[in-house]
């Protein structure tokens, strides 16, 4: 296995570092001091800079104005974005574009991809289901009217939709009477659609999306086999990349702080108990990293393995959801009172880490899913 990044992937990461270099995590009010959302919308100025750097069209093919790169490149960019808590729908927009490109009709691709790559159209995905615990594809029903090429009718509720109030289209998974999952691109302003405000632990505004007999044209519905499963795995892998980038920045913050903070005339970083805790968190991050690249590589390559791609994604989720929590908890401990000081950025990283942990779900659930895969695909 060779995880050496290509020149194109490294160039994407370098471009991302340049764009995110001036981003300040404290550019919006602290979620600890705000009862509602920390801001009315995402960082539009940053979004424009990402578009100018061609980072919104990483996964789009050249014919749609993109770079034609892969999930590994996207994860490298997401990793950099999380280090500065970038308030942009980069993951959701990129994953939705990739799904449209891979599974959408030629008309849909022509209409959306170039505009989304330029930042003119914003896409997001409803992936949390009705409660955040049940499968997202079961939260909404889809039925097609009689006749080929006729409209689809959607009914149901999706909760905690990221950037729902800012996106132009929401990709909604929905199940049919034939027990298949389709992906509907639902305009944010549409008959039969209502949005209710929700808020994440990071203070960002989420949306509860309610659909009641919402009519969607057949051309805006992707009914290809496996489209939702592929999109879901890409979203989850991207979330693991965000957790990794956030964790790496937090560990660096802890290193810088403990290297300057003195007790008994010595930096606390020289104390064995501090060094051991930091070392444990470093091991967490390296495990998060290697399982992330394994999952991203499987998604890109389509390579066959003893387990399906879902197995590698499950392992990445186990490490990311547990690892990011342990990293920020240790950082809070090593920072002492500074960890809770709203004038110091660590509390923001803790809030974002909790949101990512909740988005990924509990490690025990992923371990159970992995066990079922192992039972169905014996390694021997």
Write the layout of secondary structure elements.
Elements: H1 7-20, H2 44-52, H3 71-83, H4 90-103, H5 106-117, E1 123-125, E2 140-144, E3 152-162, E4 169-175, E5 181-187, E6 193-199, E7 205-216, E8 221-222, H6 227-260, E9 262-263, E10 266-267, H7 272-301, H8 309-335, H9 346-360, H10 363-376
Parallel strand pairs: 1-4
Antiparallel strand pairs: 2-3, 3-7, 4-5, 5-8, 6-7, 9-10
Helix pairs in contact: 1-3, 3-6, 4-5, 4-6, 6-7, 6-8, 6-9, 7-8, 8-9, 8-10
Overall form: globular
What gyration radius follows from the Cα positions, in whole Å? 21 Å
Biggest pleated sheet: 4 strands, mixed
User: Mean pLDDT, rounded to whole units?
Assistant: 93
Give the number of DSSP strands: 10
- Element string (H = helix, E = strand): HHHHHEEEEEEEEHEEHHHH
Approximate helicity band: 40-55%
The side-by-side strand order for the widest beta sheet comes to: 1-4-5-8
Structural class: alpha+beta
Distance between the termini: 21 Å
> How many helical elements?
10
Task: Report low-confidence residues grouped into runs of 5 or more.
Answer: none
Percent of sequence in beta strands: 15-25%
What does this protein look like?
Helix content is 48%, strand content 15%. It is of the alpha+beta class and 380 residues long. The strands form three sheets. Strands 1-4-5-8 form a four-stranded mixed β-sheet, with helices on one face. A four-stranded antiparallel β-sheet has the order 2-3-7-6, with no helix packed on it. Strands 9-10 form a two-stranded antiparallel sheet. The longest helix is centred in the middle third of the chain and has 34 residues, at 227-260. The two termini are 21 Å apart.
